[in-house]
Amino acid sequence: MKPYITVLIWILLGAIIGLVIFMFLQPNTPQIQQPNISLPQNNSPPPQNLTPETPTKMPVVLVVINAPCAECNFGDIGVEQTKTIISNSTKIYLSSVQNISYPSEDANMIISEYNITELPSLVVIGDSAADPDFVALWNKSAGSVEPDGTLVSRYPYPPFYNITAAKPMGLIKGIAIQASNCSYCLDATEFMPGLEDPQIAMVFTSQTILNESDPEAQVLIQTYNITKLPVLLLSEDAAVYPIFAQISVLGTIENGWFVLREVKPPYVELPTHEIHGVVNVIYLYNSSCKDCFDIHELGYYLSESAGLYIDNETNYDSNSSEAKTLIGKYNLTALPALLYSPQIATYPAFEKVWKQINNSVESDGWFVFRNYAVLNKTYQNISN
Hints:
Blueprint (H helix, E strand, L loop, with lengths): L2 H9 L46 E9 L7 H14 L4 E10 L3 H10 L3 E2 L1 E6 L5 H10 L1 E3 L5 E3 L6 E3 L4 E3 L1 E7 L13 H6 L6 E8 L4 H9 L4 E2 L1 E5 L8 H4 L3 E4 L2 E4 L6 E3 L4 E3 L1 E8 L9 H12 L2 E9 L3 H9 L4 E2 L1 E4 L9 H7 L3 E2 L5 E2 L11 E2 L3
Parallel strand pairs: 1-2, 9-10, 17-18
Antiparallel strand pairs: 1-4, 3-7, 4-6, 5-6, 7-8, 9-12, 11-15, 12-14, 13-14, 15-16, 17-20, 19-23, 20-22, 21-22
């Protein structure tokens, strides 16, 4: 798995943000009055030969009002999706696709008629009511059904052009600050490529990567009281993306910038420069128990699932003096056993889940696995 995808998965707290762009969610669809747009005629022949038993399809026209913004290109996706859906209809067919630019007289007439506020926008005119399923789907997922039957899209995916503000929305500036002297920490250059992934599709106009020692980085650290590195800052246009509602809980918005506060461990704490989130793990096992489950498989599964950074793994056979000391110290009653170092507490949700499944956190901070019943696997009972 690519590192930046791992970052995104953690940022969304384990919820794989599959950001699915549904067929109509991209563009806005404008309606037509009397501009230079050819309206479909009810007697227009459908584009294929029909048998006498086949009902005649009714024609519709798709009008696209393009945005004055090169990056605002999700209208293209919306057109293709709309064309595909209409082509599968048994009741309507697409007689033409007509593109108009904004600003123009034709575009202004449609925008005014249907109170369109964002571009690009799609409008379906004609006899779309002949296919109630298509109209219902549009109304649910794409936009509005106007009183005259015209379908207008209302949910453009960023970037889009805001007509009232007279500017594009969703063009982001990003700044990332690297953590100094931390080979364990995430490479800050991975932040923004992760957000550019097609499932999220944020669009950046600039990406700046700073080292902690850079003067500009020092100003940002002081201005925003940044206490963890690496860190990501996004300009306010990030807020128009659907995923931002999930990301925003992990930081603060100040002076027009989003500052990521909950950084994936390992990270460097400022101003002490102490590194947090580097975990050690100890495995105890009885090599003579051939039927006992493999404790390493459990450890690898937990580490991968929780996104733990494991720096060192130590293995002790139950007959070793080290194992006997640990068995006595933590009153272990079963083997094989798994112990995590106190640094694992840096991972926000881990301790809560660990305790919920009846494992222990010892007084010295070590995490000890104890709930063998949930595994339904063979283990050795060593309690007296």
